[in-house]
Specification:
Elements lengths: L1 E2 L4 H12 L4 E5 L2 H13 L4 E5 L5 H13 L6 E4 L14 H29 L3 E5 L12 H22 L4 E6 L3 E2 L2 H5 L9 E2 H13 L4 E3 L2 H12 L2 H13 L3
Parallel strand pairs: 1-2, 2-3, 4-5, 5-6, 6-9, 7-8
């Protein structure tokens, strides 16, 4: 099962997992995009069902969790990719938009991870990939709520990986850096990033790391170096540098 499968990393997850022999349950709000991906997957000889659900809504999350339980005998891998960002000063963002971000990036991911963990624990096999971000490694002014949400995803996923390891379940946090997806436009960030990785390359690296047993996958050498540096540099200096970069993209 892949959430946020209508574009970007989620779309590529669907394509590349089909190439690895998985049949798929694709979840997102945009049914037309999901059906286009399902048709492509069918051409690869795999099956793909679509569910047009809004995971910021509690009823959508409950519906999906119930379907996971119904399909428990066949559930092998869950990819929690759905999420979005909000750029700009924290106080400029509508509170409703902030609530939606937290509902999707944190609450939906947690509820679906919990459901997956319960199901996979019964079978003592399977996997879970939660998509975080390199923004999880430091606070990012003017992308504040998003970076904080991804810090939660990283911490939650690493702890869950340790809890579930003895049950035969592999859990990994995928931490992309700047990637060529719809994220920047949806978040309200201006300007292209020439060095941004393609979604296809990001997913290729992430799935290779997952298959290698890693618990955290940071995609690309530059992103790994940045994440490493932010852990040891003075935090105030990191925040100032991040704020300077983000001011130019608001």
């Amino acid at each position: 099962m892949v959430t946020g499968a209508s574009a970007g990393i989620g779309w590529e997850m669907g394509r590349q997992l089909a190439g690895r022999g998985y049949d798929l349950l694709l979840v997102a709000r945009r049914e037309d995009r999901l059906r286009a991906l399902a048709a492509e997957i069918a051409q690869r000889g795999r099956s793909a069902e679509v569910r047009a659900l809004d995971l910021t809504d509690a009823s959508g999350r409950a519906q999906l969790a119930a379907e996971m339980e119904q399909r428990s005998e066949n559930l092998e891998l869950v990819v929690n990719n759905a999420g979005f960002g909000v750029a700009g000063a924290t106080t400029d963002a509508p509170l409703e938009r902030i609530r939606g971000l937290i509902e999707l990036n944190i609450l939906a991911l947690t509820e679906l991870s919990w459901a997956a963990a319960k199901i996979l624990s019964q079978r003592r096999k399977g996997g879970l990939i939660n998509v975080a971000s390199t923004a999880a490694f430091q606070a990012v002014p003017y992308l504040n709520i998003y970076s904080a949400s991804k810090a939660y995803v990283l911490s939650f996923t690493e702890a869950l990986a340790e809890e579930l390891a003895e049950r035969g379940i592999h859990v990994m946090a995928l931490c992309p850096g700047s990637t060529q997806t719809e994220f920047h436009a949806v978040a309200g960030l201006k300007g292209a990033i020439p060095s941004a990785m393609t979604a296809a390359e990001c997913v290729r690296i992430g799935l290779a790391d997952f298959e290698a047993g890693k618990r955290v996958s940071i995609t690309g050498f530059r992103n790994k170096a940045t994440a490493f540096a932010t852990r040891f540099a003075p935090r105030r200096l990191v925040h100032k540098a991040a704020a300077s970069m983000m001011r130019n993209r608001r």
